[in-house]
Amino acid sequence: MAFGTQDDTDDVMNEINMTPMVDIMLVLLIIFIITVPVLKHSINVELPQASTEAQVIKPETLRLAVDAQGAYFMDETPVSDAELGPRLQAAAARTPQPELHIRGDKSVRYERVVQAMAAAQQAGLKKIGFITEPKS
Question: Is 128 helix (H, G, I), strand (E, B) or coil?
Fold first, then answer.
């Protein structure tokens, strides 16, 4: 036994054995050949056509303005203090419930705006917002 000599059997293989890969491909081919006809047999149903856009029902907006003297205006018409509550209750009973946008004059007493908010809350309005103008 001599050290440092190589036999012809110890050579490194330079080729990839393709047999296992071909076997796997044949098995997959057979599986696909069997399953494709099974998938084709289905019940034909004509489905109704529908649009993919979601319908957005935008509630109308009530505009409540409080002028510099503290008078209320609902949608540009004057409203007395006694009429404000019932008008807001009637609006709260609508479906979908409208949004209330309050515009208050900058010189009006804060108390008048708070009274309008309290009347809206007692009427059951859920969405109340304030309208402001950006500084220029």
Answer: strand
Q: What are the DSSP E strand ranges found in the chain?
A: 61-66, 72-74, 77-79, 99-104, 128-130
For the full predicted model, state whether its pTM sits above 0.90: no
Give 39's DSSP letter: H
- Topology (CATH) of 61-130: Nucleotidyltransferase; domain 5 (3.30.420)
| Nearest C-alpha neighbor of 128 from the set 117, 113, 136, 112 | 117
Instruction: Give the residue extent of every domain in the chain.
Output: 61-130
Digit-coded pLDDT (tens) for 85-132? 999 999 999 988 999 999 999 999 999 999 999 999 999 999 999 988
How far apart, in Å, are the Cα atoms of 97 and each of 76, 91, 120? 20, 7, 12
